[in-house]
Design brief:
The chain has 330 residues and is of the alpha/beta class. The protein has 15 helices and five strands. A five-stranded mixed beta sheet has the order 1-2-3-4-5, with helices on both faces.
């Protein structure tokens, strides 16, 4: 099941205009300069292995790099400590990406390059391998002779745990992208929430005033409540006190969403039912942003759907070009 971190990251960075600044900053300068960022597009599918207990969200982008296409594979890593085997997991993902691409384009004679990117927001700095060659146990005297026979993949690392508030805000990108990265860095680390909200204040207000944020700010506020296990009333009081009364309309919507997600219910059954309701409301927000206000019949269909259908539709909506694509065969 997706974590709040996964859900927020995918909601924001599955939109190319929010992702472009992050990708441009991480690529080596010559590659970033050669990329035609106006061609950046999200491709369908997930390439992390759902059978793995700690699998994370991933996003696959296509961009014209020079005169040829390239694939940018972004993985969010949020374990409590840097994982020794992340480089191997990234290699496995890359082979799945290329295998999928080859099957979809059987006439190709060459494969597009895949650049792997890991965004890490654990509590401590990354201190593990960022390439597969570091994982092999090789006699040092034989390393040069054998390394060309070993699978090699290095990934780009964005270590949010080492970034300062100022450095994140100074990055090229949208206000919502800045706020999302700050939340991933700050909200989970256990610092007093009042202090965290004060540090987020400028970023929240910038995102609220940006024309491309829309209902995503409600999802950011809901993320804070989920990670810190707050009721809607508790979050509302903290936000209005530490960020400002101008967020009252957003807090009203956030409070309603949290109620729908069952955050105030004590029984496990109630919490599970509430989460399903919350997923339905988030899906309705996504449908509205992509295709305009849904009909009353469609709203009722989404709100009464089961968890499996909601997950299926939520995956499809990221790549769909019409409502028919989202609800095909259902």
């Amino acid at each position: 099941m997706a974590t709040p971190h996964d859900s927020l990251f995918k909601l924001v960075f599955s939109q190319p205009h929010h992702a472009a600044g992050e990708l441009r900053r991480l690529l080596p300068p010559r590659l970033a300069a050669a990329a035609r960022w106006d061609t950046l597009e999200l491709l369908p599918g997930s390439f992390t292995d759902p059978a793995e207990p700690d699998h994370h969200v991933d996003l696959l982008y296509r961009v014209e790099l020079g005169s040829r296409p390239a694939l940018l594979h972004v993985i969010l890593e949020h374990k409590s400590a840097a994982d020794r085997w992340t480089a191997l997991q990234v290699l496995e993902c890359a082979t799945r990406v290329l295998g999928h691409h080859r099957r979809r384009h059987p006439a190709l004679t060459r494969l597009p390059p895949v650049v792997a990117i890991v965004v890490y927001h654990g509590p401590h700095g990354w201190n593990r391998a960022t390439g597969t060659l570091e994982l092999f146990d090789v006699d040092p005297s034989l390393h040069t002779d054998i390394e060309r026979f070993l699978p090699r993949l290095d990934f780009l690392l964005d270590d949010l745990s080492l970034a300062t508030d100022r450095s994140l805000t100074a990055r090229t990108g949208t206000a919502l992208a800045h706020l999302t990265l700050l939340c991933l860095q700050l909200v989970r680390d256990g610092a007093p929430l009042r202090d965290v909200l004060r540090r987020l204040r400028d970023a929240v207000l910038d995102a609220r005033d940006a024309p491309d944020t829309g209902a995503a700010l409600i999802s950011v506020l809901t993320y804070i409540a989920q990670v810190r296990d707050l009721s809607g009333a508790e979050l509302r009081d903290l936000v209005l006190t530490e960020i400002g009364p101008e967020l009252e309309p957003d807090m009203t919507s956030t409070y309603d969403q949290l109620l729908n997600q069952g955050r105030t219910e004590g029984r496990a059954e109630g919490r599970a039912e509430g989460r399903a309701e919350g997923r339905a409301e988030i899906l309705l927000e996504q449908l509205t942003r992509r295709f305009g206000p849904p009909s009353a019949e469609l709203v009722e269909r989404v709100r009464t759907a089961g968890a499996d259908a909601l997950r299926r539709w939520a995956t499809r909506v990221l790549d769909a070009t019409s409502l028919d694509d989202v609800f095909a065969d259902d």
